[in-house]
Write a structure and sequence with these properties.
Modified residues (4-aspartylphosphate): 57
Number of domains: 2
Number of strands: 5
Helix content: 40-55%
Shape: elongated
Domain Response regulatory: 7-119
CATH architecture of the largest domain: 3-Layer(aba) Sandwich
Domain HTH luxR-type: 135-200
Order of helices and strands: EHEHEHEHEHHHHH
Structural class: alpha/beta
CATH topology of the largest domain: Rossmann fold
Pfam family, one: Response_reg
Strand content: 5-15%
Radius of gyration: 23 Å
Oligomer: single chain
Keywords: DNA-binding, Phosphoprotein, Transcription, Transcription regulation
Number of helices: 9
Low-confidence stretches: none
Mean pLDDT: 88
Length: 207
């Protein structure tokens, strides 16, 4: 984990808690941003631009921690903090994808361990989003006909079958297919299928 760009967002209406957590995390090498309300956090539009996680108080004036979790829709890994243990809330938080549910006053080692897990998850998700964006960019460079050819090739159809379905010459389909492979940077049909899956591109039969 590259901690120089990993960010931890602390959201807690208790100034003492925010300050203590911020000091701990900065001393551990993290870039920390603290917020006194969920609303101030949600105004940010760069939350997932780099690997990041949220230390989020469960009960605050205004939006609750669970409501924030619902709004973020698992955009960032969340570690919940609460001064009142609530089995139902804990179950809801974990079901919603929370990394951990810690009771205040929290043990420093538990917080740091939870943050490491959260940032590892965030880093993996950032890598997936970046890869998907790159694949989508490749798809955007395909012509309409090349996309049609790719959709059929993904089903395992042979060139002559694709040609028959599209009403084109097999030689023409071979050219389109070669261009698809080149633009998608795929060295084999198996790799093309994997790229399509990661980029959310469907085979013709799935549309």
């Amino acid at each position: 984990m590259n901690e120089s760009i990993a960010r931890v967002f602390i959201v807690d209406d208790d100034e003492r808690v925010r300050g203590a957590l911020a000091r701990l995390l900065r001393a551990s090498g993290y870039h920390v941003e603290a917020f006194e309300s969920p609303e101030s956090l949600l105004q940010r539009n760069d939350l997932a631009s780099t690997p990041a996680c949220i230390l989020l108080d469960l009960q605050m004036p205004g939006l609750t921690g669970l409501e924030v979790q619902s709004q973020l829709n698992q955009l960032l890994p969340i570690i919940f903090l609460t001064g009142h243990g609530d089995i139902g809330s804990c179950a809801d938080a974990m079901k919603g994808g929370a990394v951990d549910f810690l009771i205040k006053p929290v043990c420093e080692s538990l917080v740091l361990a939870a943050i490491e897990r959260a940032l590892a998850r965030a880093s993996a998700e950032c890598a997936k989003r970046k890869q998907r964006a790159e694949i989508e960019e490749r798809v955007n460079h395909l012509t309409r006909r090349e996309r049609e050819v790719m959709a059929l090739v993904l089903t395992g159809r042979l060139n002559k079958q694709v040609a028959s379905e599209l009403g084109a010459a097999e030689k023409t389909i071979k050219i389109h297919r070669a261009r698809v492979m080149e633009k998608m940077k795929a060295r084999s049909i198996v790799e093309l299928v994997r790229l399509a899956e990661k980029g959310g591109v469907h085979a013709a039969d799935d549309e």
